[in-house]
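On clarity, I found the account of how folds are encoded harder to follow than it need be. Since the whole study asks how a given chain folds, the encoding of that fold should be made plain. For illustration, here is how one protein appears when written out as sequence plus structure tokens:

:::
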Amino acid sequence: PHPQPEREGMFHRGSGLNLTSGQYTAPIAGYYAFTATLHLVRREQRRKRQPCRGSRLRVLICVQARCQHNSNLETVTWLESGVGLFTISVTGVLYLQAGQYASVFVDNAADSPLTVQSGSDFSAILIGV
């Protein structure tokens, strides 16, 4: 039997995704297509400083939490100053050994905090061995 979705509109098939840890663990060695789409809200800055000309934001999908190595997918965007809702996506193919995991990381170089909103998604599909 397949695990049941936690909420309406959520598709979850297979046993590799752990919703508690946010990690996808490869059941077998192979090439996996990963996609993460994050809906983020940028909150107001707590301290009033000089206006920021923009801040760098990276979203990564990393194998075994090793984001500084070549075993990751990455997208980078520049945020303009201000608050609001925006969406950022990263997609690509990674090779995972059986038992290795991949997870999503957000590297926020902005002065203000970001909150991941519901409706964000993370998926992995085995495409070849």
Q: What stands out?
A: The CA atoms of residues 41 and 85 lie 4 Å apart. DSSP finds no helices and nine strands in the chain.
